[in-house]
Amino acid sequence: MSDIRIATAEDQILLEKEAKYCSYGDTVHYIEPPRIFSRCEGSYVWDTEDQAYLDLQMWYSAVNFGYANPRLNNALKQQIDTLPQIASQYLHKGKIELSEMIAVDAKKKFGLDGRVHFNVGGSQSIEDSLKVVRNASNGKSLMFAFEGGYHGRTLGASSITSSFRYRRRYGHFGERANFIPFPYHFRGPKGMTKEEYGSHCVQQFARLFETEYNGVWDPKTSQCEYAAFYVEPIQGTGGYVIPPMNFYRELKHVLDQHGILMVSDEIQMGFYRTGKLWSIEHFDVQPDVIVFGKALTNGLNPLGGIWAREELINPKIFPPGSTHSTFASNPLGTAVGLEMFKMTSEVDYGAMVMAKGKYFLEGLQDLQKRFPIIGDVDGLGLALRCEICGPDGFTPDKATLDYMVEEGMKGDMLVDGQKLGLILDVGGYYKNVITLAPSLEISYPEIDLGLKLLEQLLVRATKR
Q1: For residue 67, what are the CA distances in angstroms to 39, 62, 295, 439?
Q2: 440 is a domain residue
Q3: pLDDT, tens digit, for every residue of 249-269?
Q4: Dist. CA 273–CA 363, nearest whole Å
Q5: pTM here?
Q6: Computed over its alpha carbons, how large is the radius of gyration of the chain?
């Protein structure tokens, strides 16, 4: 095992400049010294010393289709040579056709007419969804959201994100959330099946409406104080927690009974991460609003947006000027988004992702059998989790996972004579979960390689 890596002279100069000139507000240095990267391709990134790292988190699932995907890169290049920019109040073909593609797909899957509104990223699109929801509910600013949920760090988005540390220093600006327990079966009550626990969580939520004295419902007027329930169908930052298949169907029944909208945050799990275009499709419910971002453009352009039911977003109820962003629906982003949809429609992309995810999960399950510190593994498509625990297989062990992340970034592991690093992402309520979001284009040999590298890190962790 190598010692802590020393930055090169060139990197050291850059790091000194970063320390002096860069805001740390959007920076987290998980290792010291931080790596500086110079190129990327497929499932790999290379640092300034040309050391390769297999990336199993792909920019928090923004690069679903692999780094420097030739087809998507070429779509961007071609658009640069034709219509690279135009003010968002003007029309261009890409905006219209991409909106149509998303809306027609939603009509086919959910049986609902709707419209698409673009913005420059996930958090900004959450903000737009809050405007749509508040407008449709006569200005209600209270929302339901989940414990462990993450919806962004703009002021409105952080107010419905369960981590208080994201809003502690800024106060509240309008929205507030009532955070409801998520059916996290591994850490739930013992003696219940996953489906029973899902029903139990819904029943606990439903009891809020049994009497006015539970604080959210006026039975005399049949009105709820809360406008919408913001859900991540599979929790992202919360640790890729996958609920039972009955959960959202039962939850939606309660919401519909009380006139509460369901907003599906697909920013991290959308665009086939779970084997479906939208992760909510796995659960047989009709969302009222879908929020998307990240992988729409494979990380090449900051484009996100919302789809909402016609009744919520038609021009009479949500007229021109309701919200605006200078770079929304920009032609570079919509060109890549259209090409992504075309690319994924030419093969059974969902089946491919599900097959790879099953293979990867089986490999994780094998590691779990051999390493007691793995408390839980689970997955849906290529959204996979591996929870690192103490020797009892249950007590959260953040320190061990931090150690594994640092070891992976040393770039000194050997597989078949090749020296490699491994990029992992940390999530979970206790920051002890490896949240695995590999490229959806990852090959089976690369999955095998990732499992071998994980095994080496687990060996190091148990022997340290």
Answers
A1: 9, 10, 11, 8
A2: yes
A3: 999 999 999 999 999 999 999
A4: 18
A5: 0.97
A6: 22
